[in-house]
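Weekly puzzle thread! Below is a chain. First person to post its structure in token form gets bragging rights.
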Amino acid sequence: MYPKDPNVTIKYPDTVPEYIAPPVVYGTARSMGPNASVNLNSNLTWIVTVHTGFYYYVRLHFCEIKYRMMNMRVFDIFINGMTAQEGFDVIGYTKGGGIGVPVYLDFIVFFPNMTSSSQQHIRIDLHPNISSKPVYCDAVLNGLEIFKLNDSTGNLAGLNPTPLLVPSQTADLSQILLKNGSKKGHGSAAIMGGVVGGAVGIALVFLAVFFALKKKVMLQICVSSPSNQSRLFSISEIKTATKYFSESLVIGVGGFGKVYRGDINGGSTCIAIKRGSRLLNQGAHEFQTEIDILSKLRHRHLVSLVGHCHEKDEMILVYDYMANGTLRDHLYKTQNPPLSWKQRLEICIGAARGFHYLHTGAKPGIIHRDVKTTNILLDDKWVAKVSDFGLSKAAPELDCTHVSTGVKGTFGYLGPEYYRK
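Winning reply:
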């Protein structure tokens, strides 16, 4: 927690009028703290309860009140498990404006009506991004506003958003709409901001306001699924994305089935689509296990599940596209340029952090059971991502006396936790 510093003056730029948020919000903040090893395996998280059937306008307020230069701390922003902003640097976003210059980001989140529950959660996660090698592994937020927008009938029925004090591991994925342009509506708002010096947390203040939304927002469309945090795709969407499963788009073949490269959101988002083979006896179990695990976990070194499709006997998983393929693609019988020793070391460390998070950060811990170079993926910045959780299982508790030791998957490394008794 950063209390208000009397030596820091909030300098509102032309793009952020003072009525956007008062100096008490921009002059205080919540950060993750100084422990880099802890921060890399953690998130700075807020969870707010909302009602289904409405759009919610999410505004995040930032103002650097400690560091003067760019690349001091850089972080990613996730909304309900989806990447909303990658590599965000507060000073960089203000174009080097320095200490005390506020900025804000806007997003729209939609929750369709659901028969199972009238309430859902908006979850905001901030996680350090180390790809640009910032000085500190940290994230910071000065304030959070959530505006409830009216529906098509002008209705605002339902309670205002309320904070969920105990983080939920099963918060459902909403529809995050990111589109250049403006959207107008009326709303009731929940504002989270840093409180005046000496306070220990970020205050939640409820306001009833009517306003015109004029800030441009960036966009990605995701459809809600009632049982997990991943988008539920229709088979027609998948066929369109893969040009009806064109063989020219196949980028890999694994034990579960073929993997295709695809495009969604009008071609603006590249994805990897894993289509399960109908010949697999245990395919349904692997399919559900993958969804269950990746819907509840979020880490820099774990592959991100975008969504899935379970329609007309199809079992399809959709992931973020990994531009540099698998680690194996760069090690054995390859025409790719050889990896430098520095790249190899960073990839090994990244994968190790992913497995360490599975073993110690997830509750309960997760044992992968199919560790090999084809299950270590590399994104466009050569960041290692652990993938393929279909054969994973929950780790035994400390007081357990037995755990199954049947061999799973193909040849590869098996964590020692699996044989612990």
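Puzzle host: Confirmed. Bonus trivia for everyone else. The longest helix spans residues 341-361.
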